[in-house]
Amino acid sequence: MKPLAPTLLLAVILTGFSAWFFSLQWPSRFTLEWDEEVQLHDARIINIHIKRSYERQSLLPRWNGLHRATEISFDAGPPIGRFTMSFDAYDVALIENKDQVWYVGLTRSASAPPTRPGDWQLPFLMLKPDGRITEPVNAGSLPAEFIKWNVMPDTPGPEGLAPFHNTQVRLPEKMRHWAEHPGTHPGDVVRLGSRTY
Questions:
Q1: Which range has the top average pLDDT, 80-94, 128-142, 181-195?
Q2: Is the Cβ–Cβ distance between 54 and 33 less than 8 Å?
């Protein structure tokens, strides 16, 4: 029995060291961020910076995480200038502009179930020229031209988005990736359709 004790002790020490080492290498939270071209309904292309935050679900694989928050930043033009906002438990699916008003459409991330069963109403925010952020009276009051999600979704998950980290994602590359990895909600690839799920 004595020869087994040093082996067990060594196994416990190595296991503890490995857990400590991986926790230093890969903290419990991580982010993926990039600059992305977004095409508006009128064919203009803007550049946004998007940062998605994840909570790690396990040490291996490296990018196994649950989406927790999204931050966007873009030049909203005068008089607002650079606009930056974070959304806990939401992902950004749409950025649009009409009549000097910016619209941001959000979808719930995997970490945000509906507050009531069947309540999947998607929030849309309006950024007014004076910098105020409001919600439209209802999603049906959004301009009819807004028929496409235009921000690349969080698919197929962090492991699939990791190659974009700290890069500039051009429109053709984004659309190729999006076609290969469509989202999880019906209709979110091409059309807004009804604005509830």
A1: 80-94
A2: no
